[in-house]
Amino acid sequence: MSLNPQDLQDAIPKIFAPWIVDLGLEVISVDAEGIQLRLPVGPALVHVGGVMCGQAAMAAADTAMVLAMMAQLGEFRPMTTVQLQTSFLRPVSADHCIVTARVLRSGKSLAFGSIDIANPDGRLAAQSTTTYALL
Fold first, then answer.
1. What is the largest distance, in Å, between two alpha-carbon atoms of the chain?
2. Spatial strand order in the sheet of 96-106
3. What does the pLDDT look like over 66-98, one tens digit per residue?
4. How many CB atoms lie within 10 A of CB 121?
5. What pLDDT shows up at residue 84?
């Protein structure tokens, strides 16, 4: 079973909590390498410094990896985040950013991935690594 961007977009409100749905993530592409999402950066995601807050970046990274796992598996399987580590390299001060998630390795019980969050100009703003337990 192959999932396309619309399949993944349609899955967001069915799988994730309402506040994740409210992030407004848009699935741009999906292929064998991973998935790409657009995250709008509106006032609700910006902190007093005028840039996107780290909590929003980490929520987007975690969500993107679940969708990348779904794309690789061909369906949603229950999973839980075991580890999510994020390095913040530069601020996101634009009206959106691009989130790219790749599954590095997926076994019977654990999966590993990487997520890049970039400004619209392509400059890397944050990079995450993650481990998931497949339930």
1. 44
2. 26-31, 34-40, 96-106, 110-118, 124-134, 79-88
3. 999 999 999 999 999 999 999 999 999 999 999
4. 6
5. 98
Alpha helices in 22-83 (DSSP H): 54-73
CATH of the domain at 49: 3.10.129.10
Range of the domain at 68: 5-134
Amino acid at 81: T
CB distance 59 to 119 below 8 Å: no
Q: How many structural domains comprise the chain?
A: 1
Element (H, E) at 11: helix 5-15
pLDDT digits (tens, 9 = 90+) for 13-52: 999 999 999 999 999 999 988 999 999 999 999 999 999 9
Tell me the β-bridge partners of 110.
Answer: 133
